[in-house]
């Protein structure tokens, strides 16, 4: 606990969990607005498999995947329209969380929204599709709890597990920006705000 009643947990150089930083901001309702305009969908991997996590985006750029590869696009391939604008509450939360973790003036242009249902996981990977590796990534967990796996910059580095609950925010930057990470298989359960699902917002500077 710091002076302001915040629980901050450094988990590596450049990585910090801000427990409960995103409570009571109405974010789940904002996700509903975004997904009304740009529905959650399963992308295909470049290898032709379906990604288990359902995804959508808001902001100037959205992360997409298909047979042609992973990239950021200004238009939703499902609707052929620009991605919905990033809600102001999202933008402010991302900026405030980054500042709290020591990264001033974070101005994300992309927010990937991941939706997990029980039985779905995200395997270990690195995030390396962004143009600005100097900017941090801010991630917000909503709904069902999950176990996050965090390793080093080498695939073979040991992995540490961290529980993430509704309202927890994690900021990753500097030496942690290219760390391998993933999410273990979501356990069954129900959350009052999201039902049988976990939602993760990932804010990035993609351009
Ligand atoms: C560590 N999402 O969308 S967020 C992803 O919970 C992704 O949905 C996970 O990994 C999720 O790419 C984890 C936490 C996260 C995001 C980006 C990172 C951790 C990171 C980038 C570098 C290191
Ligand atoms: Fe990732």
TrEMBL record:
Its cofactor is Fe(2+). Keywords: Dioxygenase, Iron, Metal-binding, Oxidoreductase. Binds 1 Fe(2+) ion per subunit. One of its GO terms (molecular function) is ferrous iron binding. SUPFAM superfamilies: Clavaminate synthase-like (SSF51197). GO terms for cellular component: cytoplasm. Fe cation binds at residues 125, 127, 181. InterPro entries: Alkb (IPR004574), AlkB-like (IPR027450), AlkB-like_sf (IPR037151), Oxoglu/Fe-dep_dioxygenase_dom (IPR005123). 2-oxoglutarate binds at residues 114-116, 198-204. Residues 107-207 form the Fe2OG dioxygenase domain. One of its GO terms (biological process) is oxidative RNA demethylation. Substrate binds at residues 63, 70-72, 129, 155. PANTHER family: ALKYLATED DNA REPAIR PROTEIN ALKB-RELATED (PTHR16557), NUCLEIC ACID DIOXYGENASE ALKBH1 (PTHR16557:SF2). This is DNA-N1-methyladenine dioxygenase. It comes from Paracoccus laeviglucosivorans.
